[in-house]
């Protein structure tokens, strides 16, 4: 990745901030409870400090206090522990809700982005899992901690000011220093956090990719070399993590310094008062005024930890905020793309028409301006019941036609219509309801064969699934498997050959029973025997439906599809008019 | 639990013992420094009180308290020292941790490569990714949240016990006992959190798998309008994770509350002892109070480590579970007695079945591939053509019979040696998300660009690569997503041809080629494979291959055939 310049940095940071602010608004309602509980705990701590101050004064012989105060302090200790427990629970709930919302949104966007998303799956997974998990701290800890850091120290300083105004002011001044120190130590932290997450994302992407191709690596004896590259990625993550932590540690060290300084200042200030009280006590029995003054002085000193406790929480959560900002930087563009609603817009389909006519009119499509267009003014029409075979060399634009009809991309120019209606008006998911699709390499999910076929129509009965499996020739090989159609296959079809996996995909297409059949070189990597058998099934699939098939010339020529029209394309244009296969 | 964690320390982190030990020692030193500061203040109090004697203990004690606090102020350089020392300690311990974690990730990948050479099987890629990312990360709890604070807490408890024990043994019990309980609490609490920790670790793997699977098969997910189902599965996995995290967090919070309770008990205990002891006890009570305050930060967090320990143990178990799979073919225990001379392959009486309950793929297979021979092996799909490649590459071991490479028995040779002699274009050969050049150089890391181009020419894909704006530096995308299926297959073929191995197994090398290119490729295979043995696994011959032998796999045996 090229080093991003300062402007891009700034944009990423702003976008991240905006995303978090937007999400925070949505979860504002859940903040009140943890903050209220935190404030109650602070009040308990103030009361406890007062009781202990009186106890200490009594121990020093300056005033009456005893077991009652001790019992009170113990009760207050129990109360604030209980409040702390309740606060933690409430915060956790706030984090959960925000995470669930953002994860659902991000995942929906990734699905909508479609198969042309160039990011490796591992990186996209890191977006939906690791980055969203990292946001939890923002909602669960940072937001309540930031609010508490404003309110709770004010309460404590107020209590101190009641006892002795100057001490209250001293605490307040120390409190004001805290955000300054945080901000100063946080300079450059946002960038460090962003880079940490980028490093994690790269590691995930690389690992998942290499993991999937482990056999290839092992067969070439390259696992050690790959381990070295993965090691470089892992240590890169370590370095980035340490850079972020250095900032976090610096800020908490700054925090501790301020707390120690404040304690020292107050100790110096009240040292004189306490000394006076002490000498008076030595001279004779202490009077009530002196006793009260001593207790007040001790009270102020004991308030110091109570004052800094929420600020400590703030300093700790400041790190979570930085992490969340770093995590949100890459999420922001994903979640922002099309405004508030998830994914692209479009009309819904009232019902799936039984027959479809597909028209391409002067369609142009360019993926990358630096390269020639994929489609350069392509026109054709396919009538109901007709099969159109698109042939041509690799890169001629065959796959692009299918991608357009699947709604994975939209045309730059020209018109694509189904039954006379422009398909770009439809929501892409609705467009896909019209078609059954078999790609070059069907993906089988980790599930039974039956479930893999039923993917195409979740409501289908067992009988319908079996009929589809029979039509596609799945039953033929499933019969030899230990559990037939209920045999579990691994991700990517482990346990099946390439040809068998393609048959499962064809069974899906049969079960789907859609009016439009789209086939993208479904036999490209199969051996000729398997290929011929598969075409047999595919031909039956196309009967009575509108079919568009991207295929090698071989399949069309060898009569796999008698009666089909063949359109040869090259460079994104049709070469002449369509002709009938076999002629 | 203990066994898994011990194994992490003794096996995975052994090389980091020095750094990790230094971090723990630094934490203990910082804790003692904090204690020393407050003890100095406290001793000031105690000292003054003792000097005053019984006559006016209270007043002098008050003066002592003041002088103690003043000492604190005067010791400002020392006060500053503590945050700085803590900063340094955290840097040292965290740097050591993340170094150990990075190496743990490496170890995990190596183990997987060693134990899953034939692929992931029924394992979920997303779950394995979760183990590498999240489970390895959770191991940090073992060190950062248990061992490091544990070292600090142990030092603090010992110091407090000794110091107070010397002044007033009764007081020492009041203060040090609750703190000692806090120190030991994680060991008592961890087993209770174990189930929640295991559920959380499994749930994060499940969430990743729920995300990875539909994204990997995104085309098919979308084609089936299965977006909502996939999203629901992710939401469910997310909810499951959240529920497990909530339970684990609750365990942690209870631990935190217990820590607060015990440190408060120590502080209030010092005060109570003072109240009960009367005037003579004021000074020791104050010392005890100061020490309890000083130790509160270190020990208050200690019981929370119970949940972290449980999480680390659950993560460790998941790592070992995946990493301890037995490899499909065990490496020979001793170095080979006989190194292969040449690379002739000789198979005798081979019997192999993938599982005992399935019919054998081979039953009495005999096959010879002399050096430089070109053997075509024909057979319908399912006749065991790919299984033969797996056996030759030591991805599986035969149940009976023998395979010899250059006269040396295959089972006595290390897999790496075999694979350096035999290269294979498998059915599932995969391109990685890297440049074309890097993908090709997997087969021959030292190959120069000219060699890459020769291989691309031979695989009939050079023209296409030359037309790409970035040429050899073009990235292939995951699984070659940047290219069509046929193009990706040809790049994989070029990679196999580039390999310097003297034996080449080409499993359907012409798949993805159109008829004319296929004929052209097979006719010129000679020059591409110059002098190497080639095992051509094909469905049928088209007449231009000129094999030295043709065999058909039927009923688990190789029968000589004629095209």
Automatic annotation (TrEMBL), chain A:
InterPro entries from the UniProt entry: AAA+_ATPase, ABC1_TM_dom, ABC1_TM_sf, ABC_transporter-like_ATP-bd, ABC_transporter-like_CS, ABC_transptr_CydD, P-loop_NTPase, Type_1_exporter
Topology in the lipid bilayer: Multi-pass membrane protein
Transmembrane segments: 31-53, 65-86, 142-163, 169-193, 247-268, 297-315
CDD domains: ABCC_MRP_Like
Keywords attached to this entry: ATP-binding, Membrane, Nucleotide-binding, Transmembrane, Transmembrane helix
Transmembrane is among the record's keywords: yes
Domain of life: Bacteria
Domain ABC transporter, first and last residues per copy: 358-583
Main location: membrane
Keyword Nucleotide-binding applies: yes
Residue span, ABC transmembrane type-1 domain: 35-268
Compartment(s): Cell membrane
Family matches, as PANTHER family: ATP-BINDING CASSETTE SUB-FAMILY B, COMPONENT LINKED WITH THE ASSEMBLY OF CYTOCHROME' TRANSPORT TRANSMEMBRANE ATP-BINDING PROTEIN ABC TRANSPORTER CYDD-RELATED
Protein name according to UniProt: Thiol reductant ABC exporter subunit CydD
